[in-house]
Design brief:
The chain is an all-alpha fold. The chain has helices at residues 2-19, 66-79, 84-96, 100-113, 117-133, 137-149, 155-168, 172-185, 190-202, 206-219, 224-236, 240-253, 258-270, 274-287, 292-304, 308-325, 329-346, 349-362, 367-379, 383-396, 401-413, 417-430, 435-452, 455-468, 473-485, 489-502, 507-519, 523-538, 548-559, 563-576, 581-593, 597-609, 617-636. The protein is elongated.
Amino acid sequence: EKMRRHLFLGVKLATRRTFTHGAHMHINPLGLQVHQTVQQQPFSTGRRLQNDPPAPNGPMFGGRDPKVMVQECDAILNMNPKEPTALFTKALALHKLQAWREALDVARQAIEVQTVSEGRATLYMLQAECLYQVGEVVEALKQADHALEEGFEDAFQAQAIRSRSLYVLGRDSEALEAAELCCKEQPKNGQMQHMRGVLLHSLGQLNDALGALNRASRLEPDDARMHFERGRVLRELADQEAAMAAFEKARALDDTLPFVHNMLGILLSEADRLDEALAAWERAIACDPTDASLLANKGKCLHKLERHEEAVEVFQAAINLSAASGTASQETGAVQAALGECLVVLGRDADAVQVLEEAIKQFPDDGYLFALLAFSARELRDAPKALAAIERACQLDDNQAKWHHIRGALNYDEGRHEDAMKAYSRSLELDSQSPEAANAHCARGVIAFKHIGNKEAALKDFDAAVALYPQHAQAMKYKAVLLDEQGSYPQALELWDRLLELSPLVPATLTSRGKCLSRMGQVQEAIECFGKAIEATEALPAAERTAEAHKALGALHWSQGAKDEAYVAWCMGSDADPTDVYCYFLQGVYLSRAGEPEAALAALDKAIAHSKDSPAAEVLQLRSAVAETLIRMDESKP
């Protein structure tokens, strides 16, 4: 037993330089690089470890290669499988070779036969490091605690592994305590100062975190990750310029770190330097093509650049990558939400509805997704789905003016005018100054004017809309119609003229202006205005033409006694719009009074044929009268 103790101490002293004090640990605190770099994006990658590059397998154990040591230990163990010193030495050699699983298995065998307390403590510590490397942090923490209980002499090393394991487990306060002990023992250890800074940052102690990271970067100025963490803290302290400088320093030191390029992309995007941001994300993806969050950020940048088709492809690639790698479904839902928004912009509403419904399964309390769904469902004429979605959006967040505006429009579409009025009113409570508020005033005015009969309230809303947006054509049009009905012809004419200044050749506006002139007794000016309206109508595609100007011109001629000119205008109206029932009816009126009952009957039959619903009573009444006239004429014939 005494010989075994001396032999063990000799081996330990021979290997001490390569194992203790944390100086050559493969899993130093810098290996704890957290990829929390995807900020303001759909993905949240959580706490992941970025291990240091493997150390070269150079000479050790007194200048001997660890592979040789493993072979020699195996030779001893073939003769005595439970020889403690051989098991101990083999475990150390495998650890140095980064054969974590094999080292762990051998260490477990060694600890069963190891009777020396110091040896047991060392083996517990070795197990802790191997377990940490293979991601079993709960067991790693237990083994580190066992090492300390056994009196492991290097408290720094044990507390370092405890700090990292506790951090990965989300126990940040305990992790910070362990890191503080390490920094107290070795204040010039840049890696543990970095670890301390990461933990202080995680706990929201930004100024203290910055101090620790500044010390870490001074101690190890050539480590890119030190500067990266500094940049993250500076960004949260709203020092964007210093944060950018820190990230650029990190990139200059190591151009292969995807999270550095990612954070540069975020800062550049926030500064509206979108082309540079896109380039940064493309470099990040080149460094790590397996990270779906990087694709998601690139997609958002393309979306901002209005390169929507490309954004859709990138978002879809992110979803596929996430599915292939088994990423959490909530992260996939976040990308689906971004994809849905992009599809809405592109007008691909059917695809948008499908994607948004999947995203809502992951984010059932996200009002914005419901609002997007409502918009696309409305475009698809799916009123029940649209209305249900917007109602849910407004339940989740009652303070979004645009959502209430959409709610008002959907209720109006369904004929629920009182609900629409309430929705528009709520929208105006939240936003009374924007161009969208002008639209809400106009919509509320239309309801008051056309469906409630409150013309005074309607006029106030139209005035408010024009005051907010002087070129609001719809508000001016309805106000002009309302003034026309009230007999305020000069004011109405002024509005029609303003509308024609905005859009000179709109047939409907010219027609309304002509009607206003005719009511003011300015017959010749009205006829000229109707003529311009007819010319503008003829310039339109056939499917867009109407007979409104022709009917109005014919009515004016008729009122002036020019019956033949009226008939010509109505015939031209039928040429412009062969489906206009009233033109045929008016022709029938003229022909019946002109003593041409057969032609009148033919015109009235066309009116009936083009009636979408049941023909108007006046059409049927006139046809009956004309038919009776024809019968009497037939009876009077010899």
